[in-house]
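Hey, sorry to bother you again with one of my protein questions. A protein chain has come my way and I'm curious about its shape. It would help a lot if you went through both lines with me. I owe you a coffee for this, so here goes:
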Amino acid sequence: MPTKKLDFKSGQYVVYPTQGVGKLLRIEEQTIGGQKIKMMVIDFERNHMTLRVPLERAELSGLRPLSSAKKLDEAIASAKGKAGAKRMIWARRAAQYEENINSGDPMKLAEVVRDLQRRTASDTMTFSARQLYLRALERMAQEFAVLHKMDLDAASEKIEDILGVPKEIDLNAVEEDEEEVDESEDDEE
């Protein structure tokens, strides 16, 4: 089976399936076991990690350039759809979601986000479902953020806005009117 040669350049953002979006710092040559091997040095700033991937194994490892904006928009649109059937027990579904997250494929990430997102403000999630949802959303948001030149939190919020995910209620929030009333009562005493 012929494989296409991936062409990576220093400074380019790339996606490593199990880590998400990183920046290719350089391609360097290292001698390992008496052999010279070209290594791609990728920085994952968010994870505080540097990864070295042999250039020959880049495609096999799943390393890829960023998705196009069009492909990412298609993935986000698919996440708007109806959640998939929940016929498997949670442990098997969780393992499948984990596999989808680690695939690095935007469409598979969108499946996880679609199946686990809250549909109404009263929907609740288990801790493990919430963690899987947040990881999938973050992976999608990493690419979205780089493509749209925004920070990760803003990208996550934008994706959730597009999907119509209800905002969580902040139980610590206080209405401004209440604060003003309290201050005026203190002044009278």
The CA atoms of residues 1 and 135 lie 33 Å apart.
